[in-house]
């Protein structure tokens, strides 16, 4: 730790937004410190993406983790935390405690003051229960639940976003018999293209998971054994416990934003396209700024905030994939056909079914869809949706292609390993070129 307490960059929060910003700042030669009140790695590593991925693999298909799964998960999380901390060695100071502003460029942590030319707020969100459930002990935010994963006969999940539908699938695979997801909106809320709602509902229905859309919680009660959720449609759901997988606002309690001119809008920190808040020298990145909550979105915002500080050009933030993992994966990137039409782009599409592909057949999962959207005249790829096993890898490939301005011809001629699922992309591109 440096002796003086003045840094070029001070970051509050060590989730993926915060630690990415710290690495990026240090690599650009800036003196950097990061403040964390709980565990290094934030939500993604400790109570979000990593635990849910681990548990999914634990319960789906052939598990190699055995009965000691939760202990192994803790070991993996601590390995990841060590990895981040080792990466910080010598280049980033870690300050443990709650960071609170004293004024615009000064922050106090347990009575010690730190100042910086630039401060990045990367505090994520604080989980929140719907007001009707706040006094219910058997209703827990999903982040808390993932710290204490357990099963029961009947579970209600509030929210049909990515986390809600994925935890439902994990619980199904873990042997829970009755799972009901309730969602206040009339659609699934994953951020994927709307046309994927039907695929998600089908996957969930195939597992026997009941999804109630357009259902608002009116009231909740509990007794020793059960929780009772009263819906506006007069139905009453009964379960062993409820998992809340929605809501939450910027975790600014303790940050003392009132000591700065930073503005909150509807519970999230307001920023411009450079991730600057209303105060010069104070940036905000990641989940605390609202919008869809994705770790890789938080990561690219961190890179661009540091790019702005060091005067480098911003990288494109809009070309990010979204993936929902159920028994198959549903993934999207770029522009949908409908979006293209709305914005006046002369787009075309190809829909390719994977049923004849060697890798899909030999893996026992022949059914899948690859849909590619491309510019009708230039044939530049604009977007894609994949519903299949390994969709996350296929969509990452398309994502890279879109960044590099890939055309259908490039995709058709790409040499992918055989047999592999990625070959479906070349087949889709070939079909599109023959059809047009
Ligand atoms: C169950 C679940 C599954 C998810 N799965 C995925 C997935 O598969 N893929 C994906 O892309 N996204 C996923 N997400 C979303 C992803 O986890 C978030 O988008 C990401 O973690 C946000 O990172 P962040 O750095 O903005 O905030 P966080 O990771 O929440 O980090 C904020 C950090 O700031 C600290 N902090 C807050 N206030 C202070 C303070 N005053 N002083 C010091 N420290 C403070 C907190 O303790 C925390 O460590 C999932 C989320 C959940 C809940």
Instruction: Give the CATH class of the largest domain.
Output: Alpha Beta
- The portion of residues forming beta strands comes to 25-35%
How many strands appear in the DSSP assignment? 24
Query: How many separate domains?
Result: 3
Work out the helix count: 13
Supply the CATH architecture of the largest domain: 3-Layer(bba) Sandwich
The termini sit apart by: 62 Å
Largest sheet data: 7 strands, mixed
Rg of Cα set:
23 Å
Low-confidence stretches: none
Structural summary, described in words:
The protein is of the alpha/beta class and 436 residues long. It folds into three domains: 6-127 and 249-310, FAD/NAD(P)-binding domain (3-Layer(bba) Sandwich); 131-244, 3-Layer(bba) Sandwich (FAD/NAD(P)-binding domain); 328-435, FAD/NAD-linked reductase, C-terminal dimerisation domain (Enolase-like, domain 1, 2-Layer Sandwich). 31% of the residues lie in helices and 26% in strands. It contains 13 helices and 24 strands. Strands 1, 2, 3, 4, 5, 6 and 19 form a seven-stranded mixed sheet that branches. A five-stranded parallel sheet has the order 8-15-9-10-11. A five-stranded antiparallel sheet has the order 20-21-24-23-22, sandwiched between helices. Strand 20 (322-325) and strand 21 form a beta hairpin. Helix 3 runs parallel beside helix 6 (162-173). The chain is globular. The model has no long low-confidence stretch (mean pLDDT 95). The structure holds flavin-adenine dinucleotide. The site of flavin-adenine dinucleotide has 37 residues, from helix 1, strand 2, helix 2, helix 3 and helix 5.
